[in-house]
Amino acid sequence: MYISLNVDVDFEINSLLDLPKFKQIMEHMKMKINKSKLAEELGVDRRTVEKYLNGFVPKRTRKKSSKIDEYYEVIAALLSEDSKQVFYYRRVLW
């Protein structure tokens, strides 16, 4: 039995998250993936490419505000050039 497959597939890889789908396509077509070339084009290490090809999903990070964000305006006013405060430092020796 002879089967001829002329598959024209245009697949654009924009980020590391596209790699698992790319791996499925390449395995289906029985082709090898050039991890070094992918790493060079994406600007990451080849081991990172391999990790994402194997289905790595990064942990979600929370956007947490800083504890001093609510005091930012006060701090900026105190440290500005217009502030007339003088800071004295005293070193305590034990």
From TrEMBL:
InterPro entries, per this entry? HTH_IS21_transposase_type
Pinpoint the HTH IS21-type domain residues: 20-79
What name goes with this protein? IS21 family transposase
Species for this entry: Bacillus timonensis
